[in-house]
Design goal:
This protein is mainly β. The chain has one domain (about 5-180): Lipocalin. Helices cover about 5% and strands about 55% of the residues. The chain contains one helix and 13 strands. It has an eight-stranded antiparallel β-barrel. The two termini are about 20 Å apart. About 20% of the residues are buried.
Length: about 180
């Protein structure tokens, strides 16, 4: 049984076992390839009304999983994430704007492949609950779209019909669970 909790100022740690950071990109203009990062960590700070005020998320680029070992290896290589030189993808929020109800616009910097650019996430943030083990938890889901070339991820091939092997637009989705730390 879960119990609703009144939101307050708090520090939260992202629970990596209940968090999914995923991406989707068109392949050959025909289908969509999906993947995720298995190693995620982060912290969230909420203000007195329980609204997130600071968010920091780190992903290990070496933990990318698409379901195909050869593709995962290529994505870790210098052609894409260059995991050896750039082991982390980091998001740090700069503002959180209410959009009504439980919807928020989260603006922040996404650092990937040694390049830092601003992104805007559309997010839905749930109310805190006490889980059956006594922990106070919150969950959020969100999405954004980026152009991978803006982060220097430019490897590609042009196919015979003129389509790109890998699309430039990448859709990112996240489902995050966090536990209160104080």
């Amino acid at each position: 049984m879960t119990t609703a909790i009144r939101p307050t100022a708090a520090s939260w740690a992202i629970d990596p076992t209940h968090t999914d950071i995923a991406f989707a990109v068109r392949h050959m203009g025909l289908s969509t390839v999906r993947g995720r990062f298995d190693v995620v960590a982060g912290t969230i700070r909420t203000d007195d009304s329980g609204v997130p005020s600071e968010i920091r998320v780190e992903l290990d680029t070496d933990s990318i999983v698409t379901g195909t070992a050869d593709r995962d290896g290529h994505l870790r290589s210098a052609d894409f994430f260059d995991a050896e030189r750039h082991p982390k993808i980091v998001f740090e929020s700069s503002s959180v704007r209410p959009k009504g109800g439980d919807r928020y616009e989260i603006v922040g910097d996404l650092e990937m492949h040694g390049v830092r650019n601003e992104v805007v996430l559309d997010a839905e943030i749930g109310e805190p609950i006490r889980d059956p083990f006594g922990l106070i938890r919150r969950a959020a889901s969100g999405s954004t779209k980026i152009n991978r070339k803006d982060w220097g991820l430019t490897w590609n091939q042009v196919l015979e019909a003129g389509a790109l092997l890998v699309a430039e637009e990448v859709r990112i989705t996240l489902d995050v669970q966090a536990t209160q730390q104080d």
